[in-house]
Specification:
301 residues, mainly alpha, single chain, 0% strand
């Protein structure tokens, strides 16, 4: 993994982000730290990044973002996910999501997701924090996620980070239902991927609306597949009349590409064989021949 180009504009705009965080008590940048940066820039690989991160504790990395020179700032941002205590950097990365510039926000979003991935692999120990701090961080992320003036990938990063901070019940209310009603399809798809099965009534009703009303045909197909998978998760052996009609409607939707309906085919195959014929009729009538080919392949196994 190599560093992105060291653009001067990124460093300038990172300075503007100073207003978003308090730097009292941050440790100064010493000659040894500068030497570590120089060594890392000569070896900008994943192994080099890991060695660089181990040369600092998290407060030093945070200090480097706000007080270091250009090379130090960019190197510190790259290294935050590899720090010994990466969770401590979360408030600073979240603040940089709203830095006001695409380059800075993108770097912070990548770092945020990398830290959340690192924390998930450690069973969430690095996310341990007082409830008040967790609530404040979640609220800030939710504001970023709902800010339609930001680019979709920045907002998606905020949604995914919230999923790691909030308990399951809160995710269903604050993330899934809110995300599924967002005007941006990237956010709606992200919210759909966060649905835990079997889903609650509020979530599944929101998903059902996406099958019939979403303007994105891919989203309609994926939502239909999730509706079907939710039924299987509840242990049913056959689709109810309402679900069968919903799935047949999706299979009859000529705008939905075959790839987006693949999940529906896999799912209905697990229902009682007496229901296969009615679904097969809709599949055969779909204008994308790949759908029928996939159905036949699934049926042959």
């Amino acid at each position: 993994m190599k560093l992105l180009p060291l653009l001067a504009v990124v460093a300038i705009l990172l300075c503007a982000a100073l207003a978003l965080a308090h730097d009292e008590g941050l440790e100064p940048i010493d000659a040894q730290s500068q030497a570590l940066v120089a060594r890392f820039l000569c070896d900008p690989t994943e192994a080099g990044l890991h060695r660089f991160a181990l040369g600092f504790d998290t407060p030093q990395l945070i200090s480097s973002v706000y007080k270091g020179d250009r090379s130090m700032r960019l190197s510190a941002l790259e290294a935050m996910a590899s720090a010994l205590s990466p969770g401590a950097s979360l408030p600073y990365l979240v603040a940089l999501l709203e830095a006001g510039d695409r380059a800075v926000s993108t770097r912070a979003a990548h770092g945020l997701l990398a830290v959340m991935t690192t924390c998930a692999s450690s069973q969430g120990r690095c996310l341990e924090m007082p409830p008040a701090q967790r609530g404040e961080l979640s609220a800030r992320l939710f504001r970023v996620a709902r800010n339609r003036d930001l680019d979709p990938d920045i907002r998606v990063a905020a949604w995914r980070a919230m999923a790691g901070l909030l308990p399951k019940a809160a995710r269903a209310t604050a993330l899934v239902t809110a995300g599924l009603s967002d005007s941006d399809s990237a956010i709606r798809r992200t919210a759909l991927s966060m649905v835990d099965l079997p889903a609650g009534n509020k979530e599944i009703l929101a998903v059902a609306l996406r099958v019939t009303d979403d303007e994105d045909p891919v989203m309609r197909g994926q939502a239909a597949a999730l509706m079907c998978e939710n039924a299987l998760a509840h242990g049913v052996s056959a689709a109810s009349q309402d679900l069968a009609q919903l799935l047949q409607g999706a299979l009859s939707d000529r705008a939905i590409p075959a790839d987006a309906l693949a999940g529906v085919l896999w799912c209905v195959l697990h229902f009682d064989s007496s229901q296969h014929a009615v679904f097969a009729e809709k599949i055969a009538a779909h204008p994308d021949a790949r759908l029928l080919a996939l159905w036949k392949e699934l049926m042959s196994h």
